[in-house]
Structure formats: structure tokens, C-alpha cells
Amino acid sequence: MQSYAEMSKEELQALRKKLSAQYKEFQGKDLKLDMSRGKPSAEQLDLSMEMMNVLNSDSDLTCEDGTDCRNYGVLTGIKEVKELIGDMMEVSPDNIIIYGNSSLNVMFDTVSRSMTHGVMGCTPWCKLDKVKFLCPVPGYDRHFGITEYFGIEMINVPMNEDGPDMDMVEKLVSTDDSIKGIWCVPKYSNPTGNSYSDETVRRFARLKPAAPDFRIYWDNAYGIHHLYDHDQDHLIEILAECKRAGNPDLVYKFSSTSKISFPGSGIAAIATSRNNLEDILKQLKYQTIGHDKVNQLRHVRFFKDIHGMVEHMRRHADILRPKFEAVTSILDRELSGLGIGSWTTPKGGYFISFDTLDGCAKDVVAKCKKAGLVMTGAGATYPYGKDPHDCNIRIAPSYPPLGDLILAMELFALCVKIVSIDKLLADKETVEKTVAPAESKAEA
Amino acid sequence: MQSYAEMSKEELQALRKKLSAQYKEFQGKDLKLDMSRGKPSAEQLDLSMEMMNVLNSDSDLTCEDGTDCRNYGVLTGIKEVKELIGDMMEVSPDNIIIYGNSSLNVMFDTVSRSMTHGVMGCTPWCKLDKVKFLCPVPGYDRHFGITEYFGIEMINVPMNEDGPDMDMVEKLVSTDDSIKGIWCVPKYSNPTGNSYSDETVRRFARLKPAAPDFRIYWDNAYGIHHLYDHDQDHLIEILAECKRAGNPDLVYKFSSTSKISFPGSGIAAIATSRNNLEDILKQLKYQTIGHDKVNQLRHVRFFKDIHGMVEHMRRHADILRPKFEAVTSILDRELSGLGIGSWTTPKGGYFISFDTLDGCAKDVVAKCKKAGLVMTGAGATYPYGKDPHDCNIRIAPSYPPLGDLILAMELFALCVKIVSIDKLLADKETVEKTVAPAESKAEA
Ligand SMILES: Cc1ncc(COP(=O)(O)O)c(C=O)c1O
Ligand SMILES: Cc1ncc(COP(=O)(O)O)c(C=O)c1O
């Protein structure tokens, strides 16, 4: 494959023509494809339909300790679900609070509580002139949405293959006491799909924050969301590592079963130190009488234990794997060697991250849309929706059926090619314009 | 019946002896009775067990507009549940947001949002020196808990038979712009069981608050929780009345199915004007991707429509009615005419309010506890847990089986008698002490 950068203006123009014809063909197909969000497919949701059967009118809805799950009470979750989610999050049930259906909601509440009441006795953030969060980029748009909503200044930190740039994190966190948090998706990250290395986790656990109320927001949304049986990323468990490092209160760990059972009808949880839990409970006891215990029981009766959950995730993987592989093989086939894009090949999670040439992402997404394919908005993976290089695009392979996905990725690759050519041609023109007058001057 | 106040010291002492013997008997029974919270009984919960059958693995979990309820999305609730809850709350589905399982959580979030972001463009409350709420008393402890948690100053307003003292409410609200809200349980109020009169509702709708961000927190938790078929309280619908009065944005209305289906596993909602909804949505879209739609669907499939819900409430009433009547008939039999207590006789809701002689409530509750009966803590019905007259006790008849309830109320009445006698005797002693020295002086 010849790299586009090496092609002459004429070669590029000729190719552009050919690709335009292909694009027109796509437009003629009247496609309606949506790859904008990381939603499980209907086929995946079917995997959990048995969950609708585990409780019926003859069921005993009492949990192990005798509590009637149909009634009020049990603020932090029933024992057996704490055990299940504890195993899922690799922490002791004693370090867990079970919430409602959304971990995002738990993160929101955590920031909101810090704003109004502060963290473990520190000044409430709303009383401070400036509060900042570090944001590894590209990252999850809804994280950035929460911090933006609360007027928290976001600082981009590059996300590398082994995690955020830890030199930068360490430096900033240890010197600036207005930095109160960092958003982390440590495993099969949204959107890169990369996982933090052991060294990265160790360095996180050993941070020496200038702010005593600095916390790591460790959103382990994809903790057991592997694509492969034998090639899985593994993380050092962060709570234990923080404890070992003498930093027991440094981290809030979040997770949910949104992409295990049903998104929107799962259960979410926070795991953290006893001190942090106590701090959180001071809020929680005023916020609600308790979360949905019937749904907690439903989850326990369905999955039974962590082994049941792991087996269940294997079935998800069987559906997701071909889709991820279709995406990367189409990208390989269509784009490798052209020098106009790079992408990740995750071993789990819900996303693949694609980088175009600088300044092309928005145009690629727009061009896809004009032919009936909705991608996640370009820029969405950056705070304030501003990708400084306009190059990152999040690919979400899970939702469309495989046939649609293949079509969508072919269209996507085509759009990348066209937009890249336009970019390269425009660059050449700029060069000509700057060079040409100089030449004519020399001639004169 | 002779009023205790008219009895002589000797008569009271003799009676005290007799009652003490009865109390000892109760203590010998080793009772474990809990009337502390307004929880439905197991028998009531059984009424909703069919709800566990309406969705099973063969069910189509798509809602009317084609949305797969198992997946992410639909931030404000599915259309058919908005219709059902709209009918329940007597408002248009367009004025509703469906939340998770707890209306208390919605109220908490509403206050929290006002703290951090303000109400419809007004200054966030956390930036103000002083924020106050009016609290009709006796009232619901968890309301007061929320405002206390946020450092909001609470001002007691007497709750009369037809609602809060509206002269006081109007005067305070129209003159003090630091008053930002009032907690209302307008129907079958917690704990008095009284409902607001038409005039009260009309005056609420016509308030002229000094603060543009003043809102009425209209917690209609017991909107359809009648005890009788033909003798029901009826409220003027507050949203419509506010609109008619030219005050469309004045009220947030809250409700949930906690005491219709399952407490903790029901669905909650807010109903308010379009302007307020827009304001709320600015927060909600960052807070979560969506609430539990499967549970929404479950509720709709179970109740079908408001008629189904009303029929269901009739079955609740059949269980609750005998309990309420047992309480009031025991109080009648044991205490009427004695001048040592007064109580309400609600036609719905979950509570009966009891007033002892001044300074007796704490002692009565403590005395009950010593014989194995846990009542709601005295003072709980007042902000900061401080009942200025130490006289109000909330009676929650719903949870215990009828037999236990009868026993509990007999014990309760006995404790009221004993504590009242002690109080009257102590009063007599004080009078003697103050009178006696004066007399001896006169003699000297
Ligand atoms: C990293 C990450 N965290 C959280 C969520 C949402 O979690 P929940 O459904 O528990 O609110 C997502 C969903 O895409 C996600 O990618
Ligand atoms: C007046 C009132 N509001 C709200 C609640 C709790 O509502 P939810 O279960 O929807 O949080 C109660 C429960 O006792 C109540 O009495």
C-alpha cells in the first residue's frame, strides 16, 4: 500500500474521483446506521431474559438475613448482592455500598456531595475559588459532562497505551491543591480499550496529592468485560494497592452491571475505604430510605455467584468478539499502510479508538452522517467537546447487527480516505501558494 | 370519665399504683413490637406479588413507541408510565419526569441542585449567606433531615386541621427572600393525616414570594391512599391552580408508588411546569443515562391503568382500615375524657398523630420502649428533632399484624396514662413548693 502522503496531487485527485463514486453509491442505499453509543445489542440483552423468571409470585423475596426485600430498609444493599458485586469488583463486601441502576449517577452524586459538603471534613468545593480535575484523553464524554456541569476546570492528560501520562499526573497532583480528582477508566478504557499497566496502578496508589481531598475516580466499568478467554488484561486491585501504599482513602471505585444484565435496569456500586464509606453514608442516609432490593435479589438469584457472572460474560463476548474483529479487520484491510489513520485493538470493553490525520475527525463524522451513519460526535472524547487536534473518533461496535456493522465500517473507512485526501490536497495547495510567490519573486 | 387534671394527688397516686401493676404485666410479656416507621405490612406487600409475573423471559419488553426497555435511554421515562403516573398525580404526562425508586431521593436532588446551580437562573443557594425553609409541624422527619443536611434554616409553621397556618406562611414568604421553600404533605399528611382545605391550596397557589426561586415542595405521597370508599379527602390539583393563579412555576410536586407496589422497588416522579422541567433536565442529563425502564414497564403491565391502581389501593385499604380503626377505638376507649391526650382520625395515609400533655412525649416513648414497643422517636416530627412542647408522637399502624397492634396500643395508652400522672403529680408538687414557703412567710 502506498501512503497517501507520498502520492502526487494528480494521483490523489484521481483516487478522490473513484472514492466519490463509491460514496455516492453508499448514499443511494439510504442507510440508517447508529454507532454513536456503547449500547449492547438486542442479542446480548436476550442473554439476560432468564432474569425475568427468577422471581415470580411464588418466590420467597426474603434475603439470607431474613429481610423482606419488598419493604423499606437496608440502606447499603443486601448482604448477598454485596458479596456478588464485591467479587465482581475484587473488594470485600464490607467496602461496598450498593446503589440504584446507574454508576454514572453514583459518580455524579459523589462530585455533588463534594461540592456541597466537602470530602472527609475538607472545605466544600463550592466554597473554593477553583476546583480542577485531571482528564485522561481521549476519555468518556459523560465523565467530562459531570465535571463541566459543576464548573470544575478540566485539564487534559494524554492517555497512553499503559494508562495516563503518570509523570504529568504526579507532577500536577503533587503541586496544585486545587486539583481534586482524576477520571480513570482503568480497564478496557472508554474509548481506547487500553488497560493501565501494573506500574501505572502502582504509581496511582502512591500519589502524594497536595490536596487532602483529592480522590481518584476509578470507574472500572469494564472490569469483567473481556473479549477473549485466554488473552485478558489484568489490573492490580487499586483499593488494596492504595492500602499497601499507605494511601487507603485515595480512591473511589465505581462499577455497575449495566453491560452485564440490562443497561438502565442493573445495579451500581461504589467501593472505597471505611473512612470514605462513613463520609458517604452521612449523605446517603438523608438521600433515600434505600435502593431497589428486589432488583438486587433478582441479580443474585440469576447470576448466583461470580462464576455465574463470568460464564455470562463469556456469552456476551461470543457476540461482541466477531464485531470487534470485523471492525479491526476492515480497518486493516482498507486503511493500513495509507498513513491516514491509526486505531486500537482492544481485548475487551465496548470501544475502539480511531485517530485520523489532524483536523479530519469532524469532517469524517459529518461525511458518515450524510450517508446515513451516525458515529459518536467528534470531540466528544475530550473535555468541553474540544479535541485540540480534531483527530479522535470513538467507534462503538456493540449495537448494530454484524451485517450493518460491516457496511458501516466500510463506509467509515471510505469517509476517512476521502476526507484525508481533501486534507492532503488542501495542504499541498497551501504549500504551493506559499512557495509559488517566492519562486516568481526569484524569477523576477 | 373523670379528667386527670381534676383528680386529687391521692387519687392520682392510687391510680398510678394500679397502672404500674398493669405495666409490670406488659413487661413480663417480653414484647418486641415495632411501630416506628410507616412501612406496609407483609400482607399488603403480598397484594403486589403478581407484579413479579407480568414480565418473564417470553415477554416483549418493548414499549408502545418501540423502545427496547432493556437498553439504555429514555431519560424522562417511557410514555405509558408517564400516562399512568400522570393520572395518579392528576397532571399531564408532559409535566412529568419519572425517576428511580424513591421520591425522597428526587426531593434530595432537587434541594441539592438548587444549592449548586440555583433555580431557573437564580443564584445558587450555596452562594447565599442564609437559606430558609418553612416546615409545617408536626411533619415528616426525612424532609427535615434533607434541609438540615444542607444547612438550611428551618422555621416551624403550625399545621392545623386544614393545612399550615396560611397567615403565617403568606407573611413570611412575602417578606423574607431568604425563604426558598416549604415542605408540604398536602393529603393525609405525615403525621397528622389531615388534608389541606380548598382554601389552603388556593392560598398556596396565590403566594407572592419575595424570592423568585421560592418553590413549594408538594410531596403528595398519599394522593390515592384512602381508607374508605366513600369518605375520601379531595385536593384541588396544585399545578393547575398555580397556573390559573398566574404562578405556574411555583410548585414541585413529588410522588411515588412506594406504598402502592413495593417500598424501595417502586417508581418515583416529579411533576412541575415546563420551565421547571427544563431547568431540572439540565441536571438530569448529566446525572444518569436513564432510570429503570424495565421496572416502569413492570408497573404499567401490572396496574394497566389508573383504574387498576385505584382497585389495588382498595385492597390496601381493606388491610389498613381495621388497623387505623383499632388504634382510634383503643385510644377512644382508654383515653377519651381524661384530658391527657388528643389524636387525629385520618381517612387515609399511613399515620395518626398523638399529642400528649406538654412535656410528656419523650417519656411516653421511653416507657413504651422499656416494655418492648418501639414508637417513632419523640421529637422526630419536628425540625432538628426538637418538639418545643415535647408532646407529639407519630403512630404508624400499618406494619404490625392486627393482634400486635392492639397490644401495642393498649401498652401505649397505659404509658400515656402513667407518664401523664407523673407529670400532673410533679406539677402539683411544684405548686405546693412555691405556695408553701409563701404561706410560712406569711405565718412568720
Ligand atoms: C466508562 C463508563 N462508565 C460508566 C458508564 C455508564 O455506567 P452506568 O450505566 O452504570 O451509569 C459507561 C457507559 O458507557 C462507561 O463507558
Ligand atoms: C410524606 C412522605 N414522603 C415521602 C416518603 C418516602 O417516599 P419514597 O419511598 O418515595 O422515597 C414517605 C415515607 O414514609 C412519606 O411519608
Automatic annotation (TrEMBL), chains A, B:
An annotated Gene Ontology molecular function: L-aspartate:2-oxoglutarate aminotransferase activity
Source organism superkingdom: Bacteria
Keyword annotations: Aminotransferase, Transferase
Regions crossing the membrane: none
Keyword Coiled coil listed: no
Record's keyword annotation contains Transferase: yes
UniProt-listed InterPro entries: AspAT_Ic (IPR024551), PyrdxlP-dep_Trfase (IPR015424), PyrdxlP-dep_Trfase_major (IPR015421), PyrdxlP-dep_Trfase_small (IPR015422)
Protein name: Aminotransferase
Record organism: Brotaphodocola catenula
